[in-house]
Amino acid sequence: MRDDLLNEVIGALPGWLVRAQQFNDLVAARLGVSSSDLQALFVLSTEGSLTPGELGRQIGLTTGAASRMVERLVVAELVTRSPDAADRRRVIVTARPEALDEVARHYGPLNEQLRQALGGFDDAGLRALRDFARAAEATTEGLLRAEAPDTPTRTS
């Protein structure tokens, strides 16, 4: 019985992940950016300012691809690029607050509907879902690192 329930939960995830990726692609298209660009904005919103290389590593881009992505985001006025105060040879990329507000606006309806769907869970259930989401992210990240520990996965 427990194995059946575990299989049902795991079996439900691919459909959700596909729909989430489709939604992310829709948001990226509405913003006029690529899915990699949108991922970069997400990373900058959670991690803060990063060098182009650090940002590229976070989303699996080569150094050259990360530099081109940063240039696109600067031209689109979604990020700023400035010299690192500690090391003037380095560049720091920062998401513009208005860009993050625009991204958040696109996710607002989804977040509200998810909030409503989660409203039926008690606190213990919400903590379990939170813990599962964190564990799923860490597991997936671990597998990505194991498959290509030092190699960025994308060049665009």
UniProtKB/TrEMBL annotation:
Keyword Nuclease: no
SMART domains listed in its UniProt record: HTH_MARR
Residue ranges of coiled coil: none
Domain HTH marR-type: 1-138
A Pfam family matched in the record: MarR_2
Taxonomy, superkingdom: Bacteria
InterPro entries named in the record: HTH_MarR-typ, MarR/SlyA-like, WH-like_DNA-bd_sf, WH_DNA-bd_sf
Entry's transmembrane regions: none
Keywords, in A-Z order: DNA-binding
Keyword Ribosomal protein applies: no
Molecular function via GO: DNA binding; DNA-binding transcription factor activity
Gene Ontology BP, a term: response to stress
Protein name: DNA-binding transcriptional regulator, MarR family
